[in-house]
Amino acid sequence: MSKNSSPNFNQENIVKSISDAISLGESKSNLACKGEDWESVIGVLDEAEHHIGKEMSVNSHLNSVMFSDDFNKQYEKTLPLISNYYSDLGANKDLYHAFKRVKKTDLSEQQHHIVKESVRGFELSGVALDDTKSARFKEIKQQLSMLSNKFSKNVLQATNSWKKIISVDELKGFSEAELSKVRSKKGYEINLQMPVYIDLMTYADRRELREEVYKAYISRASDIGITPKKFDNQKIMNEILQLRLELSKLVGFSNYAEYSVESKMVDSPDVVVDFLNNLIELSLPQAKTELNELEHFAGHKLMPWDLMYFSEKLKQNKFNFKSSDLKPYFPEKSVFKGLFETIQNLYGIKLTEIDEECYHRDARVIELKDNNGLMGKIYLDVYARENKRGGAWMSDYQGLYKDSLPVAFVVCNLNSPSDNKPALFDFDEIVTIFHEFGHALHHLLTKVPFPCAAGISGVPWDGVELPSQYMENFCYEREVIDLISGHWETGEKLPNELFKKIINSKNFQSGLQMLRQCEFALWDIKTHSSKNDTYEILSEVRESTSLIPIIKENRFLNSFSHIFSGGYAAGYFSYKWAEVLAADAYEYVRDNGGVGSKSSTDFRKEILEIGGSLDFMEQYVKFRGSKPKIDGLLKASGISV
After folding, report:
1. Same domain flag for 429 and 347
2. Which residues of the chain, if any, have pLDDT below 50?
3. Greatest pairwise CA separation for the chain in angstroms
4. N or C, where is the chain less crowded by C-beta within 10 Å?
5. What gap in Å lies between CA 450 and CA 400, rounded to an integer?
6. CA distances (Å), 134 to each of 10, 130, 131, 240, in order?
7. Considering only CA atoms, which of 486, 439, 497 is closest in space to residue 464?
8. Is-contact 550 519, C-beta < 8 A?
């Protein structure tokens, strides 16, 4: 690995560092405009992108995991610089013609695909627009960049704004494990951070407390509810949607949904709607049965703050165990040791934590090696904390380029050690960890030497979730459970009785879960296909997907970061489509030798190593032998048809 492979986490002079990188990019793009072949055009741009990408990535990462007002002010100054640079690049007619010249030269299969997709990218970036429209396109991209950051900042600050001190008597239903997360010098302080929120919704016996916390959470960043109104995202959302519509029309599309799917595997928004409606139709009967069972068990009609609580109680009743029974068997050290061994068994890669100074005491550094030596690094940041964006994600610092090896950031918001105990993970949290490492492997195992298509770069959005969801399946294998489990006090592996209960309960309420995800995805594609109010569209979608009352305080969309600040706009369906791919892929590998088999190696060779350098579906067919079918997803989800 090259000497410059470790990110510089210095939070000073980031505007200058971005400006310098962009100046380099501008000079390289001017040079590339005159090029005639691959090296003089794409090779020159790849060098610039390698340097700019690193500067952008580390600053975005720090703004997400160590948020502060001072740093954010500096970070926001860089957003117009970055947006303008890429807008100018996409609208550069000379560069566009240079790519078209390269297209006529003698290219490898990978190079031909990259150039073809790049030409399409130019066309989607408004290269054919006149000067006036091109200037407006650039202005919109800059505004969207700023608005997305503001949306994310409001969600974070609204989440952090709500805290409450309560007595232990109000936390009946909490075990010592849950109490330890909220114990403070003042008593017991509850908040809206995900680990605490999930505990409150799942275990708190007091219905009034669950209702209060649910309403505070679901109304975040809005004009109602408990969190400060100054963090209201409604105007930002409306402006983002309007700007996306205007942008798509500038380049010849009727709406942003059409614009978005142009760069994905699906043919049209109508295909997405049909796909989702089919899943809704297939899962709705089972979802209704599941809700009827849950309400019968509870003895009354359910409100949103009752769902997780009574679902956990019903799950305990049906399968004779509760989620907290598993946690002592999954201490952090065992989980990561087992995950690393699983990856080694799958692909022959060794992961080792190394001693390297990092940006925060919670973060650690993982090296990946195979028989040929060092392959890359992962910066792993696991625990939830106040000034850290919620959720879990993988982002890249740099890709494979010359003597620089891939580096990735893997971020979660999970339980941390407390009261002389290690961090003990819920099983769902373990699934999340496997998911994000699936993304990281996609980035790190690339064999593509071109930054524009290495790892996750250039991968269509509806294919990027395949490696992550594929990895989730291994959490349910007995051999893997033996690797990742080890009671924090005794070292005992998860007993077979509990393992069977995990398997038997794997698809508990899978109909309701399918319906929920389809609701999000259908709202997303319809919102970006229409000029109508986004909450009106959500209400229309919920007529076919929602089985319980929606309260007036529900402003879920105001904190839906995937759509308004996370890159999934008119693409949230990709989660469900990737589940189809992942279920089909895993079933094939399992039935053809499993971990370490040729089929497992083929997944690495045809999917992970290829990145965005070849047609994604064609690569899937090379691996699998046929196109994926929806049957695998339904079977894996336990939905009977």
Report:
1. yes
2. 1, 3-4
3. 75
4. C
5. 7
6. 36, 6, 5, 19
7. 439
8. no
Element (H, E) at 414: strand 407-414
Which residues, other chains included, contact 212 with Cβ-Cβ below 8 Å and sequence gap of 6+?
none
Please answer whether residues 11 and 71 qualify as being in contact, where contact means their C-beta atoms are separated by less than 8 angstroms.
yes
Inter-residue long-range contacts of 221-227, CB under 8 Å, 24+ positions, other chains counted: 221/151, 221/154, 221/155, 221/158, 221/555, 221/558, 221/559, 222/555, 222/558, 223/555, 224/552, 224/553, 224/555, 225/553, 225/555, 226/162, 227/158, 227/159, 227/161, 227/162
Return the pLDDT at 324: 85
Looking at residue 70, which CATH number applies to its domain? Answer: 1.20.1050.40
Q: How many residues does the chain have?
A: 641
Kindly state whether residue 241 falls inside one of the protein's structural domains.
no
Continuous H helices in 91-186: 93-103, 109-124, 131-161, 176-182
486 and 353 both lie in a single domain? yes
Predicted TM-score (pTM) of this structure? 0.88
Cβ atoms of 226 and 219 within 8 Å: the answer is yes
d(CA 341, CA 335): 10
Task: Give, in degrees to the nearest 5, the angle at Cα 383 between 181 and 419.
Answer: 35
Specify whether the CB–CB gap between 388 and 66 falls below 8 A.
yes
DSSP E strand boundaries for 268-405: 350-354, 364-370, 373-383, 393-398
Residue 169 shares a structural domain with residue 123: no
Q: Which two tokens stand for residue 287?
A: 């979802």
Which letter does DSSP use for residue 27 in this model? H
DSSP class of 106? -
Residue among 436, 472, 519, 579 flagged as catalytic: 436
Nearest-angstrom CA–CA distance, 224 and 217: 11
CA distance 309 to 198: 10
Name the domain count of the chain. 3
H-helix segments, 372-426: none
**C-alpha pair distances (Å), 274 with each of 158, 280, 522:** 36, 10, 10
Helix H or strand E encompassing 583:
helix 574-591
- In the annotation, is 47 catalytic? no
CATH number of 490's domain: 1.10.1370.40
Do 579 and 495 lie in a common domain? yes
175 plus 86 within the same structural domain: no
* Cβ-contact 409, 58 below 8 angstroms: no
Q: Which residues contact 59 (CB under 8 A, 6 or more apart)?
A: 14, 17, 18, 75, 78
Domain that includes residue 30, residue range: 3-90+92-128
CB 244 within 8 A of CB 250: no
Amino acid at residue number 367:
E
Report the pLDDT value the prediction gives residue 4, as an integer from 0 to 100. 47
Determine which helix (DSSP H) or strand (DSSP E) holds 407, and give its type and residue range. strand 407-414
Q: Evaluate whether residue 339 is within a structural domain.
A: yes
Region of 252 (left: φ > 0; alpha: ψ -120 to 50; beta: rest) is left
Same domain (yes/no): 206, 344: no
Which of 219, 240, 267 is the last residue before a domain boundary?
219
CB-based contacts of 13: which residues, under 8 Å, 6+ apart?
Answer: none
- Of 219, 247, 262, which residue is a domain's last? 219
**pLDDT tens-digit map of 573-599:** 999 999 999 999 999 999 999 888 999
Instruction: Tell me if 236 is assigned to some domain.
Output: no
Give residue 3's pLDDT. 42
Q: How far apart are CA 492 and CA 304, in angstroms?
A: 37
